[in-house]
Amino acid sequence: MAETMKQTVAGILKSIERYNPANLQTLERYVEMQSKENTYDLEANLAVLKLYQFNPEKFNADITYVTLKHWVKKYGWRDDGSLIFIANQDENIKTKNITEKIEFDHLAPLMALL
Question: If we measure between CA atoms, which residue out of 26, 30, 60, 67 comes closest to residue 46?
């Protein structure tokens, strides 16, 4: 099942369907699967966050928490209570591999919820 889900999501991400809110449920299930299997798919997670940005009425704080928690773990950031410290961002994140950029100013209200 995990491999089928991975292929389905890969197909979504390679097309305009990545911006279709009808695919949000599939992408959210994939985020949950990543959490259970301790895997990380940057492109899928960015697609979920981008869909929340475009469709704020579909925002799911639990999925966003899981996504950001994985991001923090993946890039060696540390959570110190209510603050997140970004250490050596230039060394840990290869920006040439990220096709979309998250504006952290837009995430401030979200982080307040976490």
Answer: 67
How many CA atoms are closer than 13 Å to the CA of 51, on its beta-carbon side? 26
CATH number at residue 40: 1.25.40.250
By residue range, what is the domain housing residue 42?
A: 2-113
Q: Do 50 and 100 meet the contact criterion of CB atoms below 8 Å apart?
A: yes
> CA-CA distance, 32 to 46, in Å (whole number)?
14
* 67-89 residue pLDDT tens: 888 877 777 665 556 555 555 44
Please count the structural domains in the chain. 1
Percent of the chain with pLDDT over 90: 44
